[in-house]
Specification:
The complex is a heterodimer of chains A (about 210) and B (about 200). Chain A starts with a helix and ends with a helix. Helices cover about 80% and strands about 0% of the residues of chain A. The longest helix of chain A has 26 residues. The radius of gyration of chain A is 19 Å and the shape is globular. In chain B, about 40% of the residues lie in helices and about 20% in strands. In chain B, a hairpin with a 5-residue loop joins β6 and β7. Chain B contains 6 helices and 9 strands, in the order ααβββαβαβαββββα. With about 200 residues, chain B is α+β, with helices and mostly antiparallel strands. Chain B starts with a helix and ends in a 5-residue tail after the last helix. In chain B, strands 2-1-5-4-3-8-9 form a 7-stranded mixed sheet. Classes of the chains: A mainly alpha (about 210), B alpha+beta (about 200). Chains A and B meet through α5 and α6 of A and α1 and α2 of B.
Chain lengths: ~210, ~200
Amino acid sequence: MTMSQARLSAGAGLATLFVLALPPMRTWLEASMVAHMLIQIPLLATTGFAAGFGLSPSQRARLRRLIGGPLPFVLTALLASSYWMLPRALDATLVNPFAELAKFASLPLLVGLPLALGWERLEAVGRGFVWTNFFSMLAVVGWLYIAAPVRVCNSYLVADQYDAGLWMVRLAIALFLAWLASLFMHRAPAYTTLRATLASTITQARPAP
Amino acid sequence: MRRALYASALIAFAALAVFWWGTDGFRAFTTETARRERILLNPRALPLFTLEDQDGRRFNFNEYRGRLLAVEFIYTRCETLCRSLGTAFRQIRDAVPADRLGTDFALVTVSFDPSDDLTALRAYATHHGADGRHWRVARLTDEAARDALLDVFGVVVIPDGRDGYEHNAAIHLLDRDGRLVRISDIEAPEDFIRAAGLRS
């Protein structure tokens, strides 16, 4: 990434964050559970991810060295993003300005930014872990929302909850397929090994004739 | 590598603390569970609200001091949850020993729908068997008081886009001092009956 690209990425991230924070935008995206969970929250994380590339490569490397490599960053992103999957956390942001502020601060700073710092140094296996963990979490939470016998959010309609669940499962499947397809397009040695492992697992799993 | 390990342990610990705090010790993952847990731990005193029952009589919860009071929130046009609420209330009423009904225990159904008039309340009362004495069906006369009442009970009402509402339906118990002490599930009136010590 060149210097100007980095600046563009950081600028786009901050500008998006600003737009998302505008009251009409917040009202609009938080009116439905689907938009809240699947548009606003991922976008907030993306702003931090994009802004992270505004730091120079040496600054990013220094931050990584400070806490010992990419893993703690990825862990932070994973844990902080799970918090916002709690129905209660989602409800709270609608009635409590501090919770809303915490959401707007933590998603860019504790999910997007650490992911940007950790991602570029993550091996193929590490990336695979993050992705597969993300799909499965999305699918499980989505399924829970579809199958829950109760309304999990006091602020959202039960039909909205069902829709959100359905979209999460759809998204999980789509992302999984896209990820699987992307594996076959990489030329790096790590991916060749991964492909070979996958292929041999599939062959072995096939019942003997 | 060691540094990464320490950092990860610290991060995991911090996250655990935040999740613990955010779910009241891993017990309440939804706002509704949290509301019920908190009332159990900290009974809530209620401000004074003037209500109007199906016969047009004005009253407030204070008049029930010295008695247990079951409170539920509905809107009369409701076809789904409120029917279960009505059924649950009837089950509770029927479980109370005759000598305690009215003297030690009473029920109030409150409509949060501004469009519910006395006729609508009466129709609801007749349908569910609320007699207007031991079980009253009431509404709020003023809009601001309505929001304050829902707020203090922790009831969230949202329009469902089909001219109705969705709300966190439950059965609320006020103790003899008029404090909100318990919130039970509408699917488990038995639980409420036992908790309130209503079985003879």
